[in-house]
Amino acid sequence: MATDMTTMTKDTILRVEHLSMRFGGLMAIDDFSFEAKRGEITALIGPNGAGKTTVFNCITGFYKPTMGMLTLHRSNGREFLLERLRDFEINKVAGVARTFQNIRLFSGLTVLENLLVAQHNVLMKASGYTILGLLGLPTYKNAAKAAIEKAEYWLDKADLTDRADDPAGDLSYGAQRRLEIARAMCTGPELLCLDEPAAGLNPKESLTLNALLRGIRDEGTSLLLIEHDMSVVMEISDHVVVLEYGQKISDGTPDHVKNDPRVIAAYLGVEDDEVEEIEEKLDKGIIEEGSV
Amino acid sequence: MATVSETVPNNVMAKAIKEGIFAGVIAFLMFSLFVGIETYQDINNQLVWRTRWGLLAVFVAVAAVGRFMTVAFIKPHLDRRKLAKAKAGILEISEEKSFFHRHFLKFALVFLLIYPFLSLLIVGKQGSLKYVDNFGIQILIYVMLAWGLNIVVGLAGLLDLGYVAFYAVGAYSYALLSSYFGFSFWLLLPMSGILAALWGVILGFPVLRLRGDYLAIVTLAFGEIIRLVLINWTDVTKGTFGISGIAKASFFGIWSFDTGSPNNFVKAWGLSASSVYYKIFLFYIILALCMLTAYVTIRLRRMPIGRAWEALREDEIACRSLGINTVTTKLTAFATGAMFGGFAGSFFATRQGFVSPESFVFLESAVILAIVVLGGMGSLTGIAIAAVIMVGGTEILREMSFLKIIFGPDFTPELYRMLLFGLAMIIVMLFKPRGFVGSREPTAFLKERKAISGSFTKEGHG
Amino acid sequence: MEYFIQQLINGLTLGSIYGLVAIGYTMVYGIIGMINFAHGDIFMLGGFAALIVFLLATSFFAGIPVALLLLLMLLVGMLMTGLWNWTIERIAYRPLRGSFRLAPLITAIGMSIFLSNFIQVTQGPRNKPIPPLVTDTYHFGAITVSLKQILIVVITSILLFAFWYIVNKTPLGRAQRATEQDRKMAALLGVDVDKTISITFIMGAALAAVAGAMYLMYYGVASFNDGFIPGVKAFTAAVLGGIGSLPGAVLGGLLIGLIESLWSAYFSIAYKDVATFAILAFVLIFKPTGILGRPEVEKV
């Protein structure tokens, strides 16, 4: 472990090495390695069932990988092995936040409350683990104020200020996606993992999302995203990793990946039986013809 | 009949008659054995039977006529009203609130503060015993228990079917520690709460990994285990006989309410001897405890821990992804709820002067949970209203001795208390599945505080 | 050793009764995901129906053969509780289907309180003893097996077989399994979901009635609050075996029966229920899906 560290360049935020995940007899991820650089948007793409979400769930602590090492480098120089952290520590200690493919908001809480819940750990400390806060000490009051300001900042970024006092469940689909991202950002992460952020969005919403994601990157948070929508991937990613049947088949800049014959084969297929599958995907608009 | 068919279409009428007859037949079959036949022991202690055709006929008639009326009149009427409302475009929740409605809580608090004196004034000392004790204190105990359980079920969304265990821990803590060591109520009150919270943590720790119905059944099991231990550990708890002669609470150590004591409250103030003063004192203690529970709940909801509870109820997985330690969050909810149960328990012990395992059966847990759900999970006002209606309503039944005139001298209204309680639970749930107050007050707002409709809030999965 | 076998037999008898009741819990839970808290009281109702039939039959037809009498008690009890459970589902549970999760649970608890108090009010709060129905016993060395124990185990086995056949081999069973898997899809494929759920409630109640009648025969006494403890134990059995699993319910029932009788025999009779509940808690904590339950996958 220590030998690897020395060779690591400084601007790597997440390093995944020899990750394998087995479900019963199925090898969902097989010896998968990649790196995500700090301050970049890294996209993880691949056909349906390639194992992208599984990789994601390993990184964010929802699965314990069968094998492999997931190292997160924080900007303060501390390193964490994600597979050894407990589920909530991935966010609390390692600074990795995530969103979900099927949005998971606190639908009965207001938009603002959703953003305040995300600042739980900061507020907990400020409230002296509730006890001091219960006594009404100013430390907590100030922290609570700061939390609302932070929430307002992200409300503005996500274009949700008008809906701040409405229940999250009442928002439109696109707004819910943005809220989920804003909520993840309120935890102050260094790495934000997005599971298909553009799924189900219309073109206009998709554009707003791209702007939001770029804004997040420009403020210094690194992004890792899974995406089906190639237009989003090609437009905003700095780095693309392609996964097929649990194995990495390509890794590089969007242009490099776009022209990689193995990627084209994976998406367009080379054998007859796979061609049909690809055509189906094309019909559904999951892959844009021009992008591959 | 002719006049009726003018307003009710014939097909509806035919349907109503058909359904009425059907309901009658079903009722006849259902009640034939249990109502139509009465079993009783004769003087030789032999089980014999006799028929009750009259009563059976009443049951069948009620079912048939009830069904007929529902189909023929009530349902069309409700449909018409709904249609009219939809046409007029009036929303179900109207924004306009009356003066009384807006200041309801203030009125309620003032009323509670003067309630004992009001009852003294109106019905005198002897009459007040009943109103202060049976109604006032009794209802407030349930309000407090339900508010305590609300933290666990209503806020954190953890289904606890054994809440009464913590009530029992509080009650026995007080009973045992005061009888064996002679500690005072004011020392033991916080101690019982802490002990109950400790038990909450001990029991909570292994089970909080469980979700939903599994959690429910394990908490039920723990509740039963504690009760069974209380029954069987006779050396300490005296088993089913219970512990009697539990010390009364003193007036903060200044005056005593024991009749033999030199610094007796009644003597010190030169009042005529009556137990009503003690009851009034107890009334204010439980009122203060309730207020404490409400205050803490309201404050906690606006603190990160309270928000985390509610977030946990909404989506546990999302909570984890936001760095919230769900295990400690659940444990604090469990322990906080348990603590208030413990407070209520020690109060119960001092009020009764007697505790036995009888008081801590599953039914009590069910009643408390029912009050929380009927009131509307998470809503303190709704829960208090539910407690008044459910507990007060069944207490009123005890007072209805005039019913003996109608149903004959053998009629004992108390017998019907739990029957009606069960029935009320079913009926309220059918008409208001989200309880009396289904909406949720947000804990923070940017521009305006809007109540959140119950349709958005979730009820938790574990 | 003889003592042990004796206790085994006693436990098996008791376990059969729990198993029958547990099936009702597990089926309802499987098909609509609801803890039917009133099921224990349906069991009690079944016992009372059998009791009243016994009284009526013995006073109208003195000297009625015991086998016929028993059959009558079981049949009337099954019909009666089936009708009750059908009505209860129709009136109290169906309107709440698909609503807020706690509403049906509270309704079921309310129904349980209602049913036990209904019997208390209409039949009186006292225990109702009946003269022993079947008294024959057989001795194998030091082991005593009573005919009623044999009857209970045999009737349970027959019912379980019939039940297994219905669920696995008939269109009705297929509809039930389909509804359990995916209610909406089943409805789209032409399964009458309402009817299937109703029938499930009737079947569960019928089994509970048999259990109730046999409980009455075994102990010779019925009481309005007989529903709670056996109900909770049967539910424990269902959870222990893996809720939603039919063989699990039976297995759980037998285990609970065995644990109870062995614990009473070797440790302390006072703490037998504590042992049952403690084992339940223990199993759930370490194997939350029960012995034969399907693991619940947490979807992210």
From TrEMBL, chain A:
Record-linked SMART domains: AAA
Signal peptide interval: none
GO BP terms, alphabetized: D-alanine transmembrane transport; L-alanine transport; L-isoleucine import across plasma membrane; L-valine import across plasma membrane
One term of GO molecular function: L-phenylalanine transmembrane transporter activity
GO cellular component: plasma membrane
UniProtKB keywords: Amino-acid transport, ATP-binding, Nucleotide-binding, Transport
InterPro entries in alphabetical order: AAA+_ATPase (IPR003593), ABC_AA/LPS_Transport (IPR051120), ABC_transporter-like_ATP-bd (IPR003439), BCA_ABC_TP_C (IPR032823), P-loop_NTPase (IPR027417)
Domain of life: Bacteria
Similarity remark: Belongs to the ABC transporter superfamily.
UniProt-recorded name of the protein: Branched-chain amino acid transport system ATP-binding protein
TrEMBL record, chain C:
TM ranges: 12-35, 42-62, 68-88, 100-119, 139-167, 197-218, 238-259, 266-286
Molecular function GO labels: L-isoleucine transmembrane transporter activity; L-leucine transmembrane transporter activity; L-phenylalanine transmembrane transporter activity; L-valine transmembrane transporter activity
GO biological process, one term: L-isoleucine import across plasma membrane
GO cellular component, one term: plasma membrane
Keywords: Amino-acid transport, Cell inner membrane, Cell membrane, Membrane, Transmembrane, Transmembrane helix, Transport
Lineage: superkingdom: Bacteria
Transport among keywords: yes
Its membrane topology: Multi-pass membrane protein
Keyword Amino-acid biosynthesis attached: no
Coiled coil location: none
Compartments where located: Cell membrane
Chief localization: membrane
Similarity comment: Belongs to the binding-protein-dependent transport system permease family. LivHM subfamily.
Protein name: Branched-chain amino acid transport system permease protein
